[in-house]
Fold these 3 entries.
Entry 1:
Amino acid sequence: MNLSTDKKWMSRALALAERGDVRAHPNPRVGCVIVRRGRVVGEGWHERFGGPHAEVRALAQAGVRAKGSTLYVTLEPCPHWGQTPPCADAVARSGVARVVAAGSDPHPRFRGRGVATLRRQGVAVETGLLTGPAQRLNPGFFSRQKTGRPFVRLKMAQSLDGKIASRTGASRWITGSAARRWVHARRAACDAVLVGGETVRRDNPFLTAHGAGPDPLRVVLSSSLDLDPRSRVFDRSAPTWVLTGPGASVSRRRRLEKAGTQVITVPARNGRVDVAQALAALGRRGVADLLVEGGGSTAASFLESGTVDRVYFFVAPFFLGGRTAPTSVDGAGWGRPDEGPRLKNVRVTQMGPDLLVQGDL
């Protein structure tokens, strides 16, 4: 088949997948295009969890015109029953002659089974077209299926000299309104937002999306459980989990649980909650996309653990100074410049007066 033609229609399927949003979670965003004799006869994307998958919606639009067509889809059609019937069977029954899938299902139990189902029923299948863009649509889905942990995004806001608060602890506001709106939208697009206990004590944040979309799960890392149940993060407007170590105070735990908070015990390392174990616990509980917004100590813990996938650093155009003012990345630090984590795919965007520096690790 013509590669440029296949890329054209797969690009259309990717664009359709982008219309999906957090309502599809925990399923991935998927797009599908059905083409017959050079014309689109059906399109679809996954809109919400429990609703029809992209292939099913496109097949419904195509009807009998699906017979003899080529179906382009951004992820291997599912071979199993979940909230909906298997898509692979529906595609085979429709009379589609050829399927082009961007990538395979990352789940070890299901990888390749959809392709095998289609081929057994006489459908020609090709995979691997525009796989990179397809995976970038669903980094959390692929991370959780492949590694067992969420895709981790680290967000910080600092002054030009790297301070996240003044020497008196004042931090409102480091960045302007445009940057804060961006953060609220990012929260709405993720499964959970995480901070350390010190941020709860110092800043008393809500950690909600502030109307930008659905509120995320709120997660607090706290070895001591020295947290006030009256803090905003425990206001029951959105679920809140506290991850703590095995030696945490039983009375403090009960006090938080009485306030409606779920307290989860994970292994500790050097007296602190082990970051890798905390991420594994979140992954087991369905969290696929995590935004870390803690202070300098939390940022250092995640960076030192090597679990950060993407970084968003806002830099505000002013100085705070002060030896005792908290910095954006605390901890022991790295001995040489070439030892520190280095970003790739770096982009710099101006938002109001602030700069957003983002990149991958």
Entry 2:
Amino acid sequence: MAIGPAHIYLKKGIEKGIEKENLLAIYNSSLPQKRNFQTYIHSLGHLCHFSGVNYHYLRRVIKREIDCYDVYPIAKRSGGSRYISAPEDELKDVQRWINRYVLSNVKPHWRCFSYHAEASIYNAAKEHCGSKWIIKLDIENFFDSVSEIAVYKLFRELGYNPLLSFELARVSTIEPLRINKKMAAKWVNYNTSSDELPYSRRNVKYFGRLPQGAPTSPSISNLVFKGIDEEFQFFSEKNNLIYTRYADDICFSSHEKSFNRESAQQVVSYCSSVLRANGYATKKLKTKIIPPGVRKVVLGFNVDHDEPKLTKAYKKRLESHIRGVEKFGAIAHAKHKKFDSVLGMLEHVLGLVNHAKLVEYGYAVGLKNKLDTAKQRQGFIG
């Protein structure tokens, strides 16, 4: 039974034969969630009632008895692959419910510019316009670095009881197939012989991690990282820096004349140590210190001006796609650029155009019109 207005809830509960004292206890325990505009859930059965997902199915998910993710690689623009773990429909339904009614109502740190209602990659870049120095760090395997233990602690902080927090953490994470030996201390579940109720640890080799592809993962990553965001912001205020985070992209900037390369190295050293202490690692090749006089690019935008601008490289890449579709046709261009499908290539180009609209609207609309004309001529749109 959903907990709505107190008097109606009590009335309906009493009609169902539930003791008034029990109803009051449940209602009072729901108040912390109500204050945060979250939906109160008191058990797994209650979650199943709200989400419409089968109870026995969800129990098997939590016990790690079934494989409910389709794991596949996608190519990264920088080279290599990232693995997407797409949940099957029934699990995705409950994850969407959790994201909508629990997680989306919890605000991330105000210096986080990704994965929430007010998120903006443009605004994140804009914060660094006019800076003299920029320090950029990239977190390696961002989602993979968030363990089910951290997720459990998050749900506890949101006011949910220990058992339900454990269940929500299991529903929101995936057990890895294998773990690098160097990472065993963090991920291996050494006590696998316990059959203690309500959930046995038997046959669960590893602690779960956030799957890249689950509806809950972006919001959870933001909220788990909130403490580090707070620490980095405090450090920034103390050192007259500007701090932003967009997903796994961390950026600091300074306009101080006294700031120098040694100062920048200290920022890198401090941030790396904080991240290591919290189970994260940085990509060394993507750690960059950009001094005065060098073109500054943040999140793909040129921030050397008062407002973010598209980079010349971005424009060249976008115009090359449009020209290729116009001159050689979408099919030939997709093959030349080694896309898996023509429609995939066209969606990619449209994404580039929409990104350009954030910054140079007129320029982007002109290219969009050219793309639409070419697609229509080649029979891709009516």
Entry 3:
Amino acid sequence: MKTSELQSIKQRYNIVGNCEALNNALDVALKVAPIDLSVLIIGESGVGKDILPRVIHDNSPRRREKYFAINCGAIPEGTIDSELFGHVKGSFTGAIGDSLGYFGAANKGTLFLDEVGELPMATQARLLRVLENGEYIPVGATDVRKTDVRVVAATNVNIQKAISEGRFREDLYYRLNQIQIQMPALRDRGEDIVLLFRLFAMQMAEKYRMDRVVLTDEAKQMLMRYKWPGNIRQLKSITEQLSVLSAERTITPEILSRFIPQDQESTQLATIHSTEGDHSFENEREILYKILFELRGNVNDMRREMGALKKQLDDVRSGSVTPQTTAPLTTTQLAPITPLQPIQQEPDLEDAVAEEYVEPEHELENLNLNDLSKNMLEKALERNNGNRKKAAQELGISDRTLYRRLKQYGLDK
């Protein structure tokens, strides 16, 4: 498309910006407008997806017919079928008369379904039928009705992910996606951000008869480095705040920083300049990371110990070994567990904590598992002068497990 024609369209619909992605989106919209195909507009919330359906309708053979824009996410699930496809009198409580619904009212015209990814699955099936053959049945009716409506849809939902999660019909996606148009995010539009700021500032100045706010060169760079998670909608809001609340009409980076959110997770500036005396959370993060790594190690150790314990229990159940005929214990097999007896129920998970201890070989010969566990507890308490907490730490077990063992062996007196 010629540059002059594109600029004419931008002036007509008050579209500001010259980035290549925006120009491409407008070019595709104008090319598809005369051709009666379904269009799916993809883009983040707040990028201005609602402009393109109007451009498509006004440049199509349907431009003299009705145009409706419906936000599918704003209609309650219980009434959305009635809103879209109409209903007959008495079909539900409050249905005091017949209703055409949007598909009936927009016959011969264009229907813009914003946030189409929010439609319930049952409504998606009805929509697919309308797109395929123009047929639909109003709520509570028995007769099939026909309509000739061009559908332009838009969504900020990842449709492919929604399909894989069973939240969106794949066949409906392909039917809506005959032509796809991608609207760029504001952070990818470069100097368009400054142009939009200038437009919004001028609109505020004219509407409320105030001096227009202007940006310094440094403030412009700061504006273009920001991530803009709310896109154009957020930029307009911040411009309006500056116009009303800022005493200075020349906006510097210091003034601008007071109006831009500093949430590091989603809205952080590309460059952060720290100042002396600012609180740092590095130490807190390191502590949390350390705790997480230790927890992961403990879980892995518990899994290994549970695997070894389960194998021993399976051997006992199968009769291949008995508690008395188990192979001689090595130092890596010793753990404070109860004697292996015929199993009545699964052992408590906490009994499977890894607790390794080395005893002299001449003492191991006459000890079974029960005696060994009791002996280990006694020696640990003796070395720690009866301090149970220190004894538990030495054995590598929790205080709760230690107390249970003491009670089991009669050492809690």
